[in-house]
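Progress report, Aim 2. The chain analyzed during this reporting quarter is listed below.
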Amino acid sequence: MIRFFVLFFFILTTISFAEIKKVNIVGNSRVNSNTIETLVDKKITNVDSIFINNLTKKIYDTEFFSDVKISYNQDTLTITVVENPIVNFFYINGVKDSDLDQINKIITLKENSIFSTSKLKKNIEDTREFLNASGYYQATIIPEVIKIDNNQVNLIINIDKKDISKIKNIYFIGNKYFSNSQLLDVITSKEDSWWKLFTSSALSEQRVEYDKQLLKDFYKNKGFFEAQIESAFASVDKSNNFSLTFSINSGKKHKFGDFEIKTSAATFKDQDVNEIKAFSSKLLKNEIYSTDILNKLNRQVTSYLESKKYSNFEINIQELKKSEDLISIALQLSEGQKVLIDKINIQGNTITEEKVIRDSLVLAEGDYLNSTKVKKSVDNIKSRQLFSKVDYKVIDSEKKNFKDFNLFVKEQPTGSISAGVGYGSNGGLFEASINERNFLGQGINLNFTGTLATEEIKGEFSYVDPNFKQSEKELAASLFSIRDDYSNSGYQNTRAGTKFATKYEIYEDLFFRPNVGLQYDKLEITGAASNLLRSRAGNFTTSSVGYNFLIDKRDSKFNPTSGSLFYFDQNIATFISDIPTLQTGVGTTLYKELFSEKFIGSAKARLANVTAFDNKDAKLSDRIFASTSDLRGFEPRGVGPVDSKDHVGGNNLATLSLKSTFPNPIPESLRANSFLFLDVGNVWGVDYSSLISDSSKIRSSTGIALDIVSPIGPLSFTYSIPLSKASTDKEQNFTFNIGSSF
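Predicted structure tokens for the chain:
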């Protein structure tokens, strides 16, 4: 018995310490033997079943082979393989258009790729997941694998999508507190209805999960701090359509409780901390708990600290349930970590040159990482409207105390063709434009606008380079030609000219824009014009120089929610001008969040004046008219002094426009913005005659506007109702614009 155990131990020891001196590869014709042999660890000293199993798995993992057998005998390892075939021909049958493009991206088994059943199974699973996400739950996917000579296969994937499985009904059960209609407005899943042209009613598992989060966020924002969306399940009917049910437990509604500020650095002055505590306590006092209010608190504190020139700080809002219905808030202010920027990496700009993006950055490699500058840089890029998405991430650098700033952008069409129509008391108006905001990927803006109206034909071409020859100065040039044809009044006014301007920042948020211009006017009498208009006839040349000061204190150039914009400009026509004039304009716009971030209010005021010198009167083309953005509800030349039944503009203008965004039921996918507005203003003053009707009546209008990014292009609707007007005013109640991108 003892001899047996000694012999067994000797044999086991011999196997455990066996060495591989030779490797034989059998069965391979296409795959090089060296490729397989590199997977073998020849230094191994214990060739056992574990080693052989692990090696077998490694060879299978290459997906080059359908069968692998390994044996070991007398220092020689023999690997016998059966190679997977090559895909000779590949075709997807039964799918067209955009779905075909997506499925082609999903399937990895293409021509000249190595075929394996595991790959095919994975490709079918991924394709089914894609079709399910699009609502094709009844789809069938049948692959055909046809073997041909030379260890090759032809692969055909037959797909029958069948009909989309739609959501017929959506139910909310449990302790839900809110009505079904309110909750339906929260989620992205929609019930199937014939009138929902721009929304999808297909069932999608990913969308349902997203809806659960949306519902939870909605309840939390309404004060239900502990709300739970306990389940969401779908049941199918005989027509393979679904009923979707959400089970909700809202819990109790909470209010804000105690508030405190914690500071971990001497960076923050006591006066500023006290001021923050004062407006924060006022914001939270006696309010129902709401994430919107906490977001507003974060924005207000950030804005305040930035206004006090704190450049490196972090804000952390902590929530703590202190009782059954009270949530205490602690605002933690701390100094941000002082680190330098090592690299700025920009990704996603396949069309736009990198220098165009870097021109918008207010930070550079070697600068301290500053949250204010990061925010302003990202906002500058968004305001260019070259990208559909702009995001960033700060990551650790290879260098100590350095960070890399990674910027991600997604290109979007920057060319657009748009058309607009308007109808008023004096007939119709048609306007079309072609615009390219990123010419040759250099951020250059080219625009051509043409207007055809009952009494006006206009064409204008403009060129704007935001950073001309890397000078950090904008260069703008324009050419225009306009013909006003007032045949009923017996005159025609033709204008043509050009203007050049540059713009640059002379101090933080203070911009200066000088300009020069040249214009030719021709006023012709064609019929029974008034004697006053006849006295205005002739040819006029005007050369002008001007300037504009702009102070931009908005929190964002792209969809601002707070802050202000102020400008002052003057244009002086002297030198070789036939009629010397001084044109002056001043205006301001204020932005403020009203009830929540969904209600952003703005107030825009504008004053303008034109005065002629040398005992002369201002040209007809220099006279001031209220634009459609100043006084909606009236035609662009429909308000002010009237001569021979035609509005001739005034020497003065004053307008005030109040506007607010408000929520709408249109799906977020259409990026719809809705506005309510109230416009007030007047145009007055006639320097060339005291006999012309010059009503001092204040004009006003109110209305609603809607902008939609629809599948057929951007749409814009404005409906206005004049509240007060003069008898000579011309109304334009409705305007509509449609565009397309390229």
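Residues 2-83 form a domain with the Ubiquitin-like (UB roll) fold (CATH 3.10.20.310). The first helix runs from residue 2 to 16. These observations will guide the mutagenesis work planned for the next reporting period.
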